[in-house]
Amino acid sequence: MSKLREYHGSYKSVCDTFAIEQNEFDQILGQPEKSEELFNIWDTDKNGLIDALELFSGLILFSEAKFEDKLRFLFDIFDFNELNSLSIIDLEFMMISCCNATFKILGLSESEVNEEDITEFLGKNFNDDSRVNISQMLKWCAKTPEIRDYMIKIKKLPPESKNPKSHGAGSLLIDSERQGALQETKSLGAIINSKKYQQKLDWLSGLSKKLQYLN
Ligand SMILES: [Ca+2]
Asked: For the whole model, what pTM was predicted?
């Protein structure tokens, strides 16, 4: 995780936008081996650019760290206004980035997250105008089965819960169950309404003049 913080630090010094080019990618990750192959995992539309939010969401989610450390890092990244709290739209954006990153890491390149599913899911859990801080986020994740299931599906540590009964499900997954879990993940990613996604990107770029999404 501290390595990832370091990468994120170099990302911020190398890039002024959320789009990363191959040479910037190499600088950020310190000239990794097979860097083109790595880059291509993320650049599924082959336009020579990857989305920094997706990249870091994926690296964080799939790292070997406690859920809490991952969430704290994600929270910092998506706290665009540095208010130490996230709006529901920030949360939505975090979830979309995490889902799309997951599809890319698992090689489900034809899947993209259905944004409406995310909006609906968050709508059931939060009022539209609420803001959440990190401790509220941690509590919410720990008691939300969808978050726990998601972490188990990607075979990573779920949020720590005070209820010992819900521990350990991840280690019980056998290969065929894992296969099923991945397929389920894929079906969640019904085709995105790309216009809506674009609107989200436009909205985000309005937030910060530094943003310059491409595609
Ligand atoms: Ca791209």
From this structure: 0.75
For residues 100 and 177, the answer to whether their CB atoms sit within 8 Å is no
Lowest pLDDT segment from 90-99, 111-120, 177-186, 203-212 = 203-212
Ligand 1 centre to CA of 138 (Å) is 31
Phi, psi for residue 87 in degrees, rounded to 5: -80, 170
pLDDT digits (tens, 9 = 90+) for 95-130: 999 999 999 999 887 777 889 999 999 999 999 899
Question: Is the distance from CB of 62 to CB of 156 less than 8 angstroms?
Answer: yes
- Compute, in angstroms, the gap from residue 74 CA to the centroid of ligand 1: 21
| Torsion (CA) 109, 110, 116, 119 in degrees, nearest 10 | -10
For ligand 1, a single-atom ion, the residues with CB < 5 A are 43, 45, 47, 49
Q: How many angstroms does the Cα of residue 39 sit away from the middle of ligand 1?
A: 9
What does the domain layout of the chain look like in residue ranges? 62-207
